[in-house]
Amino acid sequence: MTQADLLRLRTGTAEPEPLLRVLAAGPLSAEFSAGNLRAIRYDGHEVLRAIAYLVRDEDWGTYQPSLDDLAVEEGADRFDVRYRAVCTGRSGAVLTVAVRIEGTADGTLVFDAVATTDRPFATNRCGFNILHPIVGVAGTPVTVEHVDGSVEHAVFPDLIDPAQPFLSMRAITHRVTEGLSATTRMEGDTFEMEDQRNWTDASYKTYVRPLALPWPYTVEPNAPNRQTITLTVRRDTARSAANAVRPAPGDTKTAAVSISLGAVDGTVPAIGLVLTPEEAAATRAHADLLQAIAPQHLLLHFDPSAGHDRAAAAALKRAVGDSGAMLTLECVVPCLGDLDAELGAVAAWVREAGLALSAVVVSPAVDLKSTPPGSRWPDCPPLADVYAAARRAFPGLRLGGGMISTFTELNRKRPPVDRLDFVTHTTVAIVHAADDRSVMETLEALPFVTRSTRAFIGSAPYRIGPSTIGMRQNPYGSRTADNPVRRRLTMAKADPRQDGLFAAAWAIGYAAATADAGLEGLTLSALTGPFGLVVEAGATPTPSVRPVYHAVRALAAFGGAPRLKVVSAAPGRVAAVGAETAEGRAVVLANLTPEPAVVALDPALGLVAVIDETTVEIWRTGALPAPHPHDGTVAIGPYGLGLAGPGMLRP
Prior knowledge:
Structural class: alpha+beta
Radius of gyration: 25 Å
Strand content: 35-45%
Largest sheet: 16 strands, antiparallel
Number of strands: 34
CATH architecture of the largest domain: Alpha-Beta Barrel
């Protein structure tokens, strides 16, 4: 197998990620990649997750600039980087950004950028983003200096802030660890912070240009725009030196990651798939795979404003067949006229098609689009009226609401929970960044998402999904990004990783990260289409299933079963979900990294089947690789899965 073949198998694309170079100046270090910095550390502690100069298009897509004249100089106590980044806009205008990055051993890092354009350049944002990490930072003290010179003493939000926690910023100081603090100063424009956990980014983002100002806006020629970020790390020498990070036993990339299964702790949520009228015929053609997965529920998307009618309802019925799954209608309500008439028509089409629903989720069409903080709320009947009309149209069915778009919008527009039988929302992994590490890091934000949701819905039944890597509809622009060659691209519907082992590992990681939320239902995929478990027609070679098929099938085998408390010694490297099945205790493991992993596992779990690049010829057909015994450790390839325990190894 060639290197290109391995890359496609792992991430769905042969295009390698940008080269990463570690820059170091004494105790200060940073990873330089594609012109930006990430994993900025001092004494081994993460100070900032990233500093990046980004240019966004009119739909909030991120340009991927070319880098010219790159020069890097390094010494023991300093590093210096210079380059030019070039973006070509939709109009043909060319934006050039001249960059200088300097780091010194005293803990000072300067990232300076000057943008110029040859003609008016339209953009939604052009400038710096600074990312603070969330784990160990959420809920801790912070000092903010504002543009007017005033100083605010506050805390990083613990629960996810639906708006911006800090506005009109000039500098921000936070505690990195005991004896270590950092000040980030932003010059050249007005900055503000948003809580990026809203979009499942594992960061707080300080960004340029207030959202209250109009966008898109125009960068004008002959008007250079200079922005400068200066990071200064300060330490109490005795205390922070003692706290310098050193690898702990079992915490290196080569050490085995221990997975411990505890007592029963709740129930594994019902596992579902989403089905659209557009994919109904393809789904019906793979009825055998649907039966093999045996999901507990199917989420039937229906949008009259997109042309869905009685024919669409009939197509959904044919696709559902005799799957035996509970059916939930996910209904977009146009809200353009009489609510009873709009929902009554949908209910009539459902009855005519013979769809035996167990629940219906309703959402006004306007809520498919984002309403940023400070914006005017769109015209729409009150949610209480929409829910009441849905009760009348679908008497006797459970009613769900919230958002069929992302958690971001649910957090900003919280529904009257007392009018609902359950609350739902989705997430998308590539709103702001599309590199492999950032996508996998979205799992880190999920416990904050579910805990924040629980803070305002209480103990109400709670569902999530369909949550995918790709974006099924763009709340922030006119469309999702075109991605015909399936690159790693923000806000794209078709993401290449859906084809690779990556999506399988991400799905298991998602289930593990939301395990403590007490979810009633979790939907992570469709059977066919860009979010599907079946390989797209025309793929070469043409296997029948994507790796994520096995991840969803394994989760579905757990659906509704008693959930076992699982502890991973390195949750950022290996995720696991466990259950008490009818046959006994079982677990599904996922290697979340691009490196091979060794997992320490209780031998009493018995045989293990591994789904990775070593068993590809078997699992491609939909079959499970032959399970093998283990002596307490299991080797799993990059982004691979391991299935252990009786009940998991059915053919």
